[in-house]
Amino acid sequence: MTEDLACISCGTYFTAGSGFVKFECPECGNIIVRCERCRTLGKNYICECGFSGP
Ligand SMILES: [Zn+2]
Ligand SMILES: [Zn+2]
Fold it and tell me: How far is the CA of 23 from the centre of ligand 1 (A)?
């Protein structure tokens, strides 16, 4: 598994200790990564499968 992870909303690359969250898409199980900033702003994410959420 790659560690080449980036925020799905803004594209910022994952860095340890920066408040990133990682979870599976409830639709397809794809790993979704979001940074703290996008989480705080409440930006929606859109998965490759088309699923979007808060
Ligand atoms: Zn972000
Ligand atoms: Zn998905």
Answer: 14
Ligand approaching nearest to the C-alpha of 11: 1
CA distance 3 to 1: 7
pTM score: 0.75
Q: Quick one: which of 26, 17, 13 has its CA closest to 54? A: 26
| Residue corresponding to tokens 């808060």 | 54
Half-sphere exposure at residue 21, Cβ-oriented, CA atoms within 13 angstroms: 11
pLDDT in tens, 14-42: 888 889 998 899 999 999 999 999 999 98
